[in-house]
């Protein structure tokens, strides 16, 4: 099995299933690959329900945003969980233990800051093959700590179990104090769409590795560990009308914001020119670097919308505008996602 | 690979490693199986550190108890994470999706109530093989919901990823309000040691299944899903001096309480007679049911200590006393754990 960030499963039936959730015998008897990730999540969310807890706290945001938000006695806690599995999300021959630890922590911390919260603690459920070298596991822990230390976040608990492949499920908690979360649903017509962080670099790195190369180092390293500017994201939380971690790819996650907000996000590739490193890799591999920028998720950039009158905070660049309507356009046209709506990845 | 609840790895070097954590090149170059679960956790805890978060909350209880406790603006949140992996913790040919969901939720909810907290929400990271039937995944979700519903707990988020085997990492959050957690470290000399819930039934059920049998149904079902009396555990939280989820086995978890509290737990098998169902299975298989009671963890019973003058709450039975000293005795003698200190399980 090859690591994939998208297209790992067929998307043929995804939209059809969303309209008839839980009723279709053929869907239930089919495989999760046939149904696709988002179709499966829709069905699971239906089974799990949306009622409030009977004691201890109240749910302000449930499934469907970057993170859940629960109010405990006035303290608003943001919760996100993300899993990574060896040979699906990473290969031990391509990434060190430390790389994997950094990436697992970063994926969760990005979800917390994209809700406008301050990340506080992590817990880690770790699956390890019995023959895994102890030093590799300690490197992984060093990677987790390295990324968490950037934000003063602590790992407060975990579980270690036997598993046929290395797997990590990291759960991050953040604090909102009494503030409102920045949700996907707040984009307003006329807002500026902006991005913080690299796009397409991790996808370019993965493309390089999958062809058997190890360089250019900059893009390969971008696959191994994202470089998230947490401070820049956190600076935006008081002025952004919506925010979303780009983990499914820019067009796909812009679609989540558009859907949740009831608007259209009109992206412009004028503002999304590939950097020279991506142009070089694209030329060498015969790939279009623009597709990495529009569909790559593993850089964990953050997408947000801002009122038109505000100046974008440092680290953010405008990539489009919010219009009346629905869906996402790229240079005025709908962008056909190559299976991007149905992958099985973080 | 066979499902195991204990003895999955060698324990030979565990204690030696605890004394020289991180220094021994032979340990680092060895495998996690050679090191053992507890030795690995010791090393990981050392790497991850114990500093306080720099913002958002303060850690009241870190690694080493059933759950972590974090104070967010005066709201004390209890956090526990537990993973279960196909063919390590369960087999799909032995357990339904619903069984696995119930068990995964129960393992975490037991950890929350064993801290004296009120369980509130769960998040679930789910790994699924592409060829897994959709209906099996929905059954699993029904099992999670069924067990969570018993306590009015809600599943508020999750992640679904591709994995070569079914794997679940469930993270549970509970609320303490302003109360103190009931830790492992509060046992006092003279206290009564008591247990709430069945012991040895899940281990007997696993023994039956591993010999290729499917009955007696009562013990096989006990392996498939624990039957936890959450109300009885929660009633004890105001009077217990210490509490601990029995997930490693009674003797092993009593050892954790003894170590954390600086006392000896003296257990008496007079109070731990096997029920008729366990005697029958033991006779049929040629096994000693007492070893299931003393070392089986998957029933998720709860162990606690109570001041001698209080009446035990309903659902609790006395199984020993707290003495000055260290470690655990069974009928006055040390009990040799068959590898119970080094398994890789939940």
Segments of chain A where pLDDT lies below 50 for 5+ residues? Answer: 1-22, 339-346
* First-last Cα distance of chain A: 17 Å
Overall, the morphology of chain A is: globular
Query: Which chains make the largest contact?
Result: A-B, 101 and 101 residues
Structural class of chain A: alpha+beta
Given the structure, what is the number of helices of chain A? 12
Order of helices and strands of chain A: HHHHEEEHEHEEEHHHEHEHHEEEE
Number of strands of chain A: 13
Keywords:
homodimer, 346 residues, alpha+beta, seven-stranded mixed beta sheet, six-stranded mixed beta sheet, 12 helices, 25% strand, disordered N terminus, disordered C terminus
Structure description:
- Two copies of one chain form a homodimer.
- Chain A is an alpha+beta fold.
- Helix content of chain A is 33%, strand content 25%.
- The first copy, chain A, has twelve helices and 13 strands.
- Chain A has helices spanning 14-18, 25-29, 32-35, 37-48, 97-113, 134-149, 201-210, 217-224, 230-236, 250-261, 276-285, 289-295; strands at residues 58-61, 68-72, 75-85, 118-128, 154-162, 167-177, 192-196, 242-246, 264-267, 301-306, 316-323, 327-330, 333-334.
- In chain A, the strands form two sheets. A seven-stranded mixed β-sheet of chain A has the order 8-10-7-11-9-12-13, with helices on one face. Chain A has a six-stranded mixed β-sheet with strand order 1-2-3-6-4-5, with helices on one face.
- In chain A, a hairpin with a 2-residue loop joins strand 12 (327-330) and strand 13.
- At the A-B interface, helix 2, helix 3, helix 4, strand 2 and strand 3 of A face helix 2, helix 3, helix 4, strand 2 and strand 3 of B.
């Amino acid at each position: 099995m090859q690591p994939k960030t998208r297209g790992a499963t067929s998307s043929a039936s995804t939209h059809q299933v969303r309209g008839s959730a839980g009723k279709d015998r053929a869907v239930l008897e089919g495989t999760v690959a046939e149904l696709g990730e988002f179709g499966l999540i829709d069905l699971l969310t239906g089974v799990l329900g949306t009622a409030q807890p009977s004691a201890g706290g109240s749910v302000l945001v449930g499934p469907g945003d970057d993170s859940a938000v629960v109010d405990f006695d006035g303290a608003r806690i943001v919760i996100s969980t993300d899993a990574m599995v060896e040979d699906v999300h990473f290969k031990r021959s391509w990434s060190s233990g430390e790389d994997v630890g950094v990436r697992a922590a970063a994926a969760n911390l990005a979800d917390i800051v994209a809700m406008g919260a301050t990340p506080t603690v992590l817990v880690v459920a770790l699956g390890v093959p019995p023959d895994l070298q102890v030093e590799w596991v300690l490197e992984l822990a060093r990677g987790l700590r390295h990324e968490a230390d950037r934000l003063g976040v602590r790992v407060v608990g975990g579980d270690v179990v036997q598993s046929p492949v290395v797997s990590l499920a990291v759960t991050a908690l953040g604090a909102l104090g009494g503030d409102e979360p920045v949700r996907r649903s707040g984009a307003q017509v006329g807002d500026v769409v902006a991005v913080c962080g690299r796009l397409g670099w991790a996808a370019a790195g993965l493309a390089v590795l999958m062809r058997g190369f190890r360089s250019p180092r900059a893009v390969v390293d971008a696959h191994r560990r994202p470089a998230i500017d947490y401070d820049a994201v956190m600076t935006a939380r008081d002025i952004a009308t919506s925010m979303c971690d780009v983990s499914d790819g820019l067009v796909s996650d812009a679609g989540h914001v558009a859907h949740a907000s009831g608007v259209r996000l009109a992206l412009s590739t004028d503002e999304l020119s590939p950097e020279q490193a991506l142009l070089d890799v694209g030329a060498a591999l015969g790939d279009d670097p623009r597709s990495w920028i529009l569909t790559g998720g593993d850089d964990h950039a953050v997408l947000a919308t801002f009122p038109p009158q505000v100046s974008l905070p440092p680290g953010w660049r405008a990539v489009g505008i919010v219009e009346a309507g629905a869906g996402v356009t790229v240079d005025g046209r709908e962008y056909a996602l190559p299976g991007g709506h149905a992958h099985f990845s973080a």
